[in-house]
Amino acid sequence: MRKAQFAVKGKDGKSAEVVFFHFGPGAAGGVKANVQRWLGQFKEPADKLKAKISDETIDGTKVTYVTAEGTFMKGPPFGGNKVPVPDSGLLGAIIGGKKGAVFIKTTGPKALVKSAEKDLKAMVTKALKKKK
Fold it and tell me: Which helix or strand (DSSP H or E) is residue 64 part of?
């Protein structure tokens, strides 16, 4: 499930969390189900999140990028207490693979998350180009 995580630190001392998930082939419900689940972690309905979903192919591998802004409901994904975190951003990448997709989800202050987008995309591109 959760394979790795790290924090992106902002100049103001705030941080965003970057988490890598891998569930194996056919697990986790696929791209559409995960995008809906991620958007469902916000207080606002999906149509109010300024959500953007885009697909890209990098060296033959499909990558779906997801961005959204709103009040993130931080806490366990299924049940448990959730804490509303206003002005949050989400930046996700779902990387297709024969052994199951790799999911990268970044959440935190929206300005910090937005500023990390170029670096996340560069990391994904570099990782996929190295696999050859």
Answer: strand 61-74
